[in-house]
């Protein structure tokens, strides 16, 4: 009988501890992932425009771009649907890529350490990580 309170609290600890840990990890997993989006028009030599938005945890870039467009009237984009590769970024802020002129919106990613990479997937497949700068660059191929 003397052991009961100690046993009881030990059992309670065992029950609560994993719950607390799981709760913590679960919370971190559901936090929105902050990112920046920079629009660069290398052909017209316009100054870059930078926006802040967020993506759902492990969410796709397309979702973040839609969220940004809905919340900020200075950012607009359109995309077409490719049968093989999904969403193709067609225009940003009224400027569209053009096959005849060999222009397109290139997707680049700058990580917080400053390194810039060119993802090998489009806006419908790319999953941004926290604090990345997504660069939408109007350029030529
Ligand atoms: C040429 C080419 C381009 C050219 C297309 C120019 C043109 N209008 O002809 C340009 C330079 C514009 C381009 C851009 C990009 N591309 Co590209 N491209 C190719 C390539 C080498 C050949 C496509 C082709 O001509 N096929 C033959 C024609 C007859 O078939 P088609 O179905 O009509 O081809 C069209 C589609 O492929 C489309 N297209 C081309 N690239 C992409 C990328 C995406 C995401 C989408 C939705 C459509 C698309 O454009 C073609 C012409 O209309 C393929 C690789 C390959 N060997 O197939 C990569 C490829 C399709 N591209 C790829 C990528 C990743 C991109 C970019 C996202 C790169 C970037 N980080 O910016 C961008 C698209 C950005 C955006 N605006 O959404 C990937 C797609 C992989 C994936 N699962 O998403 C591929 C498979 C190469 C790779 N890395 O493995 N691309």
Give a quick account of the main beta sheet: strands, pairing sense, barrel closure.
Answer: 5 strands, mixed
Helix content: 25-40%
- In percent terms, what proportion of residues is strand? 35-45%
Number of strands: 8
State the end-to-end CA separation. 81 Å
Mean pLDDT: 87
Number of helices: 2
CATH class (first level) name of the largest domain: Mainly Beta
> What coarse outline follows from CA principal-axis ratios?
globular
Radius of gyration: 22 Å
Strand order within the widest beta sheet? 2-1-8-6-7
Classification by helices and strands: alpha+beta
How would you characterize the overall build of this protein?
Helix content is 27%, strand content 37%. With 141 residues, it is of the alpha+beta class. It folds into two domains: 1-30; 33-140, Beta Complex (Ferric Hydroxamate Uptake Protein, Chain A, domain 1). Strands 2-1-8-6-7 form a five-stranded mixed beta sheet. Strands 3-4-5 form a three-stranded antiparallel beta sheet, covered by helices on one side. A hairpin with a 4-residue loop joins strand 1 and strand 2. The longest helix has 27 residues, at 4-30. It starts with a helix and ends with a strand. Residues 82, 84-89, 99, 104-107, 118-123, 125, 141 line the site of cobalamin.
